[in-house]
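Inverse folding, one chain.
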């Protein structure tokens, strides 16, 4: 497979990497080693850790951070930005539609059973109007570049509780601290204003008649893998970080317990999954949510970001239909393409997948975080056969995609500088307006040959530069 190199074309450095390449050539191995050690100390001090899948010790590790940035030229970013705006707009229109009239289903563009029997569909949201008709206020869209030509593809839509933006911000702070001269030499678009954009978005979706909304971040608590991000964003926005036990519902309003008495809450940026939000409506054993929250939400007394029920739009069984959504709702062709996808619920697609398991990536439709998937070319014969049995037992629970030759970016590894595969997660904010920072979170597969970039699977992160 031909792999697109982000930094070089043949033996020539791409123009947008030229200044950085000259700077890198002047750095000694000793300087780089010293800076990497300094970064580790700073990240440990800040508390940016994560848990690695399969590590039975339960020890949290430093987030792996690479000091060679992923650089995107302005003309490429403009295409990406237009495609991301288009895609998120269509996804929000889809969510409003399926929880109201269901026109796209009635038109036969998406099978009814794919929507209404999906585990992520929430019948409790049927007929509920949400402010500005926006459901996915924070979307993390995973984009990859593949093939010799380096064409962009959307790999996944993350609309439930997308994470990782704190790493985007901390990576930039780290690079500016370690190498301030680079930001003098290169015109890098800023990202530090993301918390301001997020707070502005959250305030814009307050219930009708609320002019000065109280915004909170709802966290499952300190044992959640993304707790650092929850505390970080609350602190950066200057709002309260709360757990379910800090909130209660009275007269259909949500209140926060404070030392000065109850205070009404208008907007909840929730980092808790749907199933745990309200023990009266969903899982009765949940200690993470707020009893009566759904009733308050349905009455329009509080806004949740993201809305309940957004998971249906980022479910992998719905992913193949996003291009149809764009054409149906917007009358436009998709700017960013999907990865070709086999829907294993279809007999022909299942037969092809079973015959080519060693060549494909197979994913659970409800899976996330790199779990529950088979990367055929990197799997043993026994692993493939075990996965075949799972696929045959529940074919409608899986999709399959070709193994893409993800683009590679130079990365510091133990042996020196070597290419490693990457993806990109830009964060799209939707409220009264749609906004985003130029760039996003670049994730890198640190193991040689690996295509799995998730931190939970041993991946790392890079700073992402959009340069003029």
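Residues assigned per position:
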């Amino acid at each position: 497979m031909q792999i697109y190199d982000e930094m070089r074309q043949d033996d020539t450095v791409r123009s947008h990497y030229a200044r950085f390449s000259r700077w890198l050539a002047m750095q000694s191995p000793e300087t780089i080693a010293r800076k990497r050690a300094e970064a580790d100390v700073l990240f440990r001090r800040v508390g940016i850790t994560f848990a690695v899948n399969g590590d039975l010790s339960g020890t949290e590790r430093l987030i792996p951070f690479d000091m060679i940035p992923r650089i995107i030229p302005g003309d490429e970013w403009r295409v990406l930005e237009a495609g991301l705006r288009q895609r998120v707009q269509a996804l929000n229109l889809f969510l409003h539609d399926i929880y109201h009239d269901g026109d796209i289903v009635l038109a036969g563009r998406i099978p009814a059973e794919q929507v209404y029997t999906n585990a992520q569909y929430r019948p409790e949201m049927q007929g509920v109007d949400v402010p500005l008709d926006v459901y996915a206020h924070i979307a993390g869209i995973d984009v990859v570049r593949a093939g010799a030509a380096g064409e962009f593809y959307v790999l996944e839509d993350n609309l439930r509780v997308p994470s990782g933006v704190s790493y985007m911000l901390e990576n930039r702070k780290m690079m500016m601290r370690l190498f301030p001269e680079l930001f003098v030499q290169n015109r890098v678009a800023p990202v530090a204003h993301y918390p301001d954009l997020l707070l502005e978005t959250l305030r814009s979706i307050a219930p009708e008649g609320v002019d000065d909304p109280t915004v909170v971040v709802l966290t499952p608590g300190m044992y959640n893998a993304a707790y650092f991000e929850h505390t970080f964003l609350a602190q950066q926005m200057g709002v309260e970080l709360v757990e379910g036990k800090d909130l209660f519902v009275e007269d259909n309003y949500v209140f926060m317990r404070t030392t000065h008495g109850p205070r009404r809450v208008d907007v909840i940026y929730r980092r808790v999954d749907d199933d745990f939000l309200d023990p009266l409506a969903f899982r009765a054993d949940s200690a993470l949510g707020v009893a009566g929250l759904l009733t308050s939400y349905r009455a329009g007394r509080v806004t949740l970001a993201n809305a309940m029920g957004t998971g249906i739009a980022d479910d992998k069984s719905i992913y193949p239909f996003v291009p149809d959504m764009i054409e149906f709702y917007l009358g436009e062709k998709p700017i960013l393409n999907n990865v070709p996808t086999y829907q294993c619920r279809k007999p022909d697609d299942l037969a092809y997948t079973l015959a080519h398991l060693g060549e494909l990536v197979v994913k659970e439709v409800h899976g996330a975080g790199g779990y529950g998937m088979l990367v055929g070319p990197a799997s043993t014969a026994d692993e493939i056969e075990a996965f075949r049995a799972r696929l045959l037992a529940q074919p409608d629970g899986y999709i399959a995609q070709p193994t893409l030759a993800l683009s590679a970016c130079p990365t510091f590894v133990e042996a020196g500088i070597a290419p490693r595969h990457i993806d990109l997660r830009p964060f799209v904010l939707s409220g009264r307006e749609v906004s985003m920072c130029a760039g996003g979170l670049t994730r890198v597969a640190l193991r040689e040959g690996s295509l799995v970039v998730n931190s939970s699977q041993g991946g790392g992160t890079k700073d992402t530069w959009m340069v003029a």
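The chain has two domains: 8-207+302-339+423-467, 340-403. The domain at 340-403 is CATH 3.30.1490.270 (Dna Ligase; domain 1).
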